[in-house]
Amino acid sequence: MKIKITGIGSYIPQKEIKNTDFDKHVFLNEDGTPFGYPNEVVINKFKGITGIENRRYAEDQYTSSDLAFFASQRAIENAKIDPETLDYIIFAHNFGDVKYGTTQSDILPSLATRVKNKLGIKNPKCVAYDILFGCPGWIEGVLQANAFIKSGMAKRCLVIGAETLSRVVDDHDRDSMIYSDGAGASIIEASDDETGLLSYESATFASEEAGYLYFGKSYNPDLDPDTKYIKMYGRKIYEFALSQVPAAMKSCLDKSGIAIDDVKKILIHQANEKMDEAIINRFYKLHGKTPPENIMPMSIHDLGNSSVATVPTLYDLLIQGKLENHQINKGDVVIFASVGAGMNVNAFVYRY
Known about the structure:
The chain is α/β, with parallel strands linked by helices. The protein has helices at residues 39-50, 64-79, 111-119, 137-151, 234-256, 273-286, 300-303, 310-319, and strands spanning 2-11, 15-18, 54-57, 88-93, 127-132, 156-164, 181-191, 196-204, 213-217, 228-232, 263-268, 333-340, 344-351. The chain is built from 8 helices and 13 strands. The protein is globular, with a radius of gyration of 20 Å.
């Protein structure tokens, strides 16, 4: 038995934030001192490294569970199923519902429960819960759905990744330009043919790596130090990802029995264009090869880094044919991979 994605949907907020919108920000160093160069230089360097030109922020009236609800509706419609037949709703996020203009997280009740409520599902045996697994949360949710279905505990699961990172960024930290908002959702069911999930890898590195992404105070010393924002050690994350993600992808591919030349697309977490390119190059180098053209679709240029939402959203855009120079055909093999807070790394090989 295999499991496969029978429905996919995403929600991309309409509030577009361009790089030029950061012109007036007061960016500071970690010690609170000002940069020695103008914002135009900061923004140009940022774009050169990350590839990000625009990003999307959630509309003011919506929270993460709202975005997840919209994406879930589309996935359910795409799969043409009755939501009452869902056995599990697995919601991956990091910061819960954060209302616009605040930084306080609200996770009671769980966001999965809120989505179930918004969908109007009455079946009490549809179990709803959240997972906190950093940016790889949606992939981990798919792996949990795989375990539930193969064990006989479920036949059909809704797996969601949604986040509103714009609500937890420090405006004085230039890394704030990376983050965005969005949601992706998928229906996971058993497959009785050759399509679906072929192999997977998942790991948590929790020694020194545990603190590479964290919640910390603003770089502005005049702000309340007890108000926390998402922070990261970018260079350490880059080095960690370049070391661990290609290795996990290779192990996953080896277990699948698929030759690397038969891989048609690699959908990787949209964290940083240069980092993702380096990961793909390292992955192919491990096989003594160079990456083929158009192997790696990207959405980060226009959508930014929406954490758990990036991979399912990217897959939805690919399926819909909305990524220029990228398409997927029946029988194609795709690798999904991600890295994020934990530090967590995961991947799966999938036949479409």
